[in-house]
Design brief:
The chain has twelve helices and six strands. The longest helix is centred in the C-terminal third of the chain and has 24 residues. The two termini are 22 Å apart.
C-alpha cells in the first residue's frame, strides 16, 4: 500500500512538470472555501432511490466481485472476470471488440482499453498469452491521435445538454484507461512505443477543456474552487462531473506514476502531481454525489437542475473504485463513502 504521497516536494522538476504545476495552481496548499449548500427535492428522491436499490438487487449487480486492493501491474479491478469479454458480440478479425452505435460498428477506445485489461488479467492467471494482450495494446495505439487523444469516431447524444457530441469528441475516462493499459504494457515488455504512447495520453489528459482537452476544475460547482482539478468523462460546459470516469482517470495517473515512483521530474512525477491533486478534489466533492440512500452518477442534478441519475450499475462501479483508491492512499474519506454506499444496498 502506498502512503504519504501528499508530502511530495514542491520544487519544479523540469519545464514539463512546472507547466503542469502551474495548471494545477495552488491546489495542494489552499484553504477550503465555504462549502455551498444545495437543496434536494424529496419528491424526486424518495421513490427514485427505492427504485434504484430494487433494480440493483433485481439485476444481480454485485460490486464485491470487483473489489481489490489495487496494485498497478497486477489484475485491473478483476476485469478478467468480465463475462462480455469472453465472447465479444462484434469482434473484428483479431477478436478485438467493436461496439454498435446506430447501424454501424466502431472501435470505442474505452472498450478496447478494457478488453486489453481483461487480457492482462487473464495473462497473469496463465489463461492468455502475452501476444494476445500486446495485439490489443497495438490496436489501441492505432486509435491514438498525434496529440495523444483518443477521439471517438461516432456521435453521442449527451443527456444533460440535449446536444450531440460530434465525431472526434474526447473523454478523460478514455485517456485514463489507456494510461493503465500502456503502463502495464511497458512494465511487461519495456517497449518504448508504449512509453511514448503513455506520455502522449497523459499530456492530453492534462490539457484543459478550454484548450480542447479533458481537464477541468470545480469552478462550475463553486467559483471559489477553480484550483481543484477534475478529469471530465464528458467535457461539457458547465461541467457535469461524472464520478466513475474521474476515478478511472485517477487510476491511470497512479499506474503511470508507479512506473518510476521515485522520479523527481518527467511524466511519472507529473502523474503523481495530478493523482494527488485529483484525490484532493475527490475528498472535496464526494458528499455531493450522496443523495441519502444512493449516489448520483454525476452532479447534473446540481449543475443542470436535472433529476439525480441513479444508475445501479455505475453505483456499483463507484463503490469498487473507491475501494481501489482507498487501498492505494489510505484516505479515510474514500473509505467512509465506500462503506456508506455499500450499506445502501445491504453490504458493509
Amino acid at each position: 500500500m502506498v502512503r504519504g504521497w501528499f508530502a511530495f516536494k514542491k520544487k519544479s522538476a523540469g519545464l514539463f512538470l512546472a507547466a503542469v504545476i502551474l495548471i494545477l495552481g495552488s491546489h495542494l496548499f489552499c484553504l477550503d472555501a465555504k462549502v455551498p449548500q444545495f437543496g434536494r427535492d424529496p419528491r424526486i428522491l424518495n421513490e427514485s432511490i427505492r427504485k434504484a436499490v430494487r433494480s440493483y438487487h433485481r439485476l444481480g449487480i454485485d460490486f464485491t466481485k470487483n473489489l481489490i486492493d489495487y496494485k498497478p501491474f497486477e489484475s485491473y479491478l478483476h476485469f478478467e472476470n468480465t463475462p462480455s469479454f469472453s465472447k465479444p458480440n462484434f469482434p473484428d478479425d483479431q477478436g478485438i471488440p467493436l461496439v454498435k452505435y446506430g447501424a454501424h460498428l466502431y472501435y470505442n477506445p474505452v472498450t478496447v482499453s478494457q478488453y486489453a485489461l481483461y487480457l492482462f488479467g487473464k495473462y497473469r492467471l496463465g489463461q492468455a498469452s502475452i501476444h494476445q494482450f500486446v495485439r490489443v495494446v497495438d490496436k489501441l495505439i492505432s486509435l491514438q491521435a498525434a496529440d495523444g487523444a483518443f477521439r471517438f469516431t461516432f456521435a453521442w447524444h449527451y443527456y444533460l445538454t440535449g446536444r450531440e457530441f460530434k465525431p472526434g469528441w474526447v473523454s478523460g475516462m478514455a485517456q485514463g484507461q489507456a494510461l493503465s493499459v500502456f503502463a502495464r504494457a511497458y512494465a511487461l515488455t519495456r517497449d518504448r512505443r508504449y512509453w511514448d504512447a503513455g506520455n502522449k495520453a497523459l499530456g492530453f489528459l492534462l490539457t484543459p477543456v478550454t484548450a480542447g482537452g479533458v481537464m477541468d476544475t470545480l469552478a462550475d460547482l463553486n467559483p471559489a474552487w477553480r484550483q481543484y482539478i477534475t478529469f471530465e468523462q464528458y467535457p461539457v460546459k458547465p461541467a457535469s462531473y461524472t464520478l466513475n470516469g474521474f476515478m478511472f482517470a485517477l487510476l491511470g495517473c497512479y499506474d503511470w506514476w508507479q512506473l518510476e515512483p521515485a522520479a523527481g521530474e518527467g511524466s511519472c512525477k507529473m502523474a503523481l502531481v495530478a493523482f494527488a491533486a485529483g484525490i484532493k478534489t475527490l475528498n472535496k466533492i464526494l458528499k455531493y454525489y450522496d443523495v441519502g440512500g444512493f449516489a448520483s452518477y454525476d452532479l447534473g442534478y446540481i449543475i443542470y437542475q436535472a433529476k439525480p441519475n441513479l444508475d445501479p450499475f455505475y453505483f456499483s462501479v463507484d463503490i469498487y473504485l473507491l475501494h481501489a483508491l482507498h487501498s492505494i492512499t489510505g484516505d479515510e474519506t474514500l473509505a467512509k463513502y465506500e462503506s456508506l454506499w455499500a450499506s445502501y444496498v445491504g453490504t458493509k
